[in-house]
Amino acid sequence: MSTPRPSTDAPDYAALASEIKRWAKELGFAEAGISGVSLAQDEQHLQSWLDDGYHGEMDYMARHGTRRSRPDELEPGTQRVISVRMDYMPPGTSFAWDVINDAEAGYVARYALGRDYHKLMRNRLQKLAERIRGAIGDFGYRAYVDSAPVLEKALARNAGLGWIGKHTVLINRQAGSYFFLGELYTNLPLPVDAPAGAHCGTCRKCIDICPTQAIVAPYRLDARRCISYLTIELKGSIPEELRTPMGNRIFGCDDCQLICPWNKFAQDATEPDFAPRHRLDGAKLVELFAWSEEEFLRRTEGMAIRRTGYEGWLRNIAVALGNAPSSPDVHAALLTRAQHPSAIVREHVAWALAKHDALSRSGERD
């Protein structure tokens, strides 16, 4: 982090903070807030979560030690963090529950339907930094959008952007939880905002609705059971006991957010690039399963879905097809991948076929 140029006039940091929030909105962010760098309690919570093994195969969650919870260790000289949020629910998107209840369709988490947000938000954070530089001269900063060991939800909470709900997702009183987060670490001694208070009360709808019961206690998520982890982060076999509860969710899961009462205040995205591509807000599983690897790579270019890889894509859809109503089309689709070069794909296709065969035999006996 570079040192600011000497100046004969000390900046009016309170006025600058107000300008930063105004500039953030002009750049397309829904809101911005400023926090300090003290995260001692969150550090303890993270360590306890890691000690319980709830991070599964996400070794990167433990790899960076205290740099995740101590911003000034990750970026020396950091005094403040400017947190921003950007709404992502595209207007006109197919109603989520309708897709989830259509067992022949594939459900993709609403955040992943359009363009990947990482570069888009990082570029806008860079523009925000350039506006700050234009106002006060050189200063030290680093922009992050899910690209480094950052406790982004805790920082956003401390910046007043929302509270961390019982499902461990950030909730904003005026905008629900359908938004992305980004950060600008800076060495500017800006005035900080008041942290957001929690407003979940006695509600536990997110805990009760989780298909795989991954929310093992309020504010405690066992990622090893979470469908988002299973369909994106996990690279091997999905545990058999969790396959049926996954239903038709092929990339991520939104149930805990969809049921949250605060999302009646959710705001539509203003970024056109977040609009669904390739009808992924409700496309049929058989159609998606037929994509070749070349089609997958071409159609998911610039999208978060790329993270699962083609093998993971077929694995996830095979599970969903195993949970779909039996039909000649479903059976034929599964057979096309029964001899796939990937052992992971073959295993999940065999499970799906066996499940349909068992249902068929049961129906014949009935």
From TrEMBL:
Pfam families: Fer4_16, QueG_DUF1730. Gene3D superfamilies: 3.30.70.20. Signal peptide: none annotated. It catalyses: epoxyqueuosine(34) in tRNA + AH2 = queuosine(34) in tRNA + A + H2O. Keywords: 4Fe-4S, Cobalamin, Cobalt, Cytoplasm, Iron, Iron-sulfur, Metal-binding, Oxidoreductase, Queuosine biosynthesis, tRNA processing. GO terms for molecular function: epoxyqueuosine reductase activity. The keyword Ribonucleoprotein does not apply. [4Fe-4S] cluster 1 binds at residues 200, 203, 206, 260. Residues 188-220 form the 4Fe-4S ferredoxin-type domain. Its EC number is 1.17.99.6. Belongs to the QueG family. Monomer. Catalyzes the conversion of epoxyqueuosine (oQ) to queuosine (Q), which is a hypermodified base found in the wobble positions of tRNA(Asp), tRNA(Asn), tRNA(His) and tRNA(Tyr). This is Epoxyqueuosine reductase. It comes from Dyella mobilis.
